[in-house]
Amino acid sequence: MSWSQRHQQALEQRRQNGQYRQRTVCEQADARSLCAAGTDFLNFSANDYLGLSHHPRIINAWQQGAVKYGVGAGGSGHITGFRTPQAELEPQLADWLGYPRALLFISGFAANQAVIMALAGKDDRILADRLSHASLLEAASHSPAALRRFAHNQPAALATRLEGLCSGETLVVTEGIFSMDGDSAPLAALHRLAQQHNAWLLVDDAHGIGVCGEQGRGSCWQQGVRPELQIITFGKAFGVSGAALLCDDSTAEFMLQFARHLIYSTAMPPAQVCALQEALRCVQQGDDLRQRLQENIARFRAGCTGLRWAMMDSGSAIQPLRVGEEGAAVDLAMRLRLQGCWVSAIRPPTVPPGTARLRITLSAAHLPDDIDRLLEVLHATGG
Question: Which of 59, 91, 132, 183 has its CA 20 to 30 A from that of 148?
Answer without folding.
Answer: 183
